[in-house]
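Key idea: predict the complex, not the pieces.
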Amino acid sequence: MLVSDWQQGDHWNDVCANWNDAQKRSLANVMLRFFLTGIFQQRRMQADWHPGNFRFCTHGDKARLLLYDFGCVFEPSEVEQLGLARLIQATIDRSEPPWPLFLKLGFGREFLEPLAHKLPALCRVLFEPFCCEYPYDVADWNLAERVTDILGDDRWNFRIAGPARLVFLMRSFHGLAYYLSGLATPIFWQRAFTTSVGSLSGDIANLQIPPEDTSKCGFDSMARYLKIRVV
Amino acid sequence: MELTQYASTIEHLDELLDEDVKRRMDEQEIDLNQIVSDVRRQGYVPASLFCLTEGTKQFDVWLE
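Result:
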């Protein structure tokens, strides 16, 4: 017996139409934590974020997420968990090149190597919400257009290079972005990420990354600042 | 006057420029959307983006 008590909740359309700003902000934080906890703490995450699988309820301004269907599950390996955390952290603080980390995550060298120099910019855009030291509004992301511009003709190589099982992770990530876009409220991704991976910090640092030639594919190739001067 | 922003602000450069500057860019056929697209293609590397002269004012925008 899997279900012993039926929980009622609002459909996604009701949330968008009827919830107040505080409730939406609370739900946005709940959904981000749900995503991050699934990867970095439980290593078991919902991979089908279809609105039919969710209901939503509130207690005052506090939101709760109800899962009706947890049948499509992605279980990241420990290497995937730690590797992804390290890749996001490296993108935040520009501490190491992303290319060896992609290899550690299982990307194919043959297809990824020709575009290794594009990975810093790609990571900076993919993980932009984590890089911002303030609440981030996904309406500012413009992810698809920017990724298309960065990868250009290499976009298919990037997709082919990726291990098939990470498709589930990408589906979850897109699902999260979909709901946050609908909630239209900025939230602090970096703080949630830091909290979520805090207990893993030693393991993340100790993850063994084989040495690679990264002379032309580090974050130091990217500009840090935009300057405007009027004289 | 010199304004410094994070490089990612290039995605919203349009909002940082006043209308006179944008009008002048139009007159000189400087395509801001194309500049931003090129910046992405080149991986957000340090580079001069454009320069404008408006009367006695010189206006420079770059990534560093």
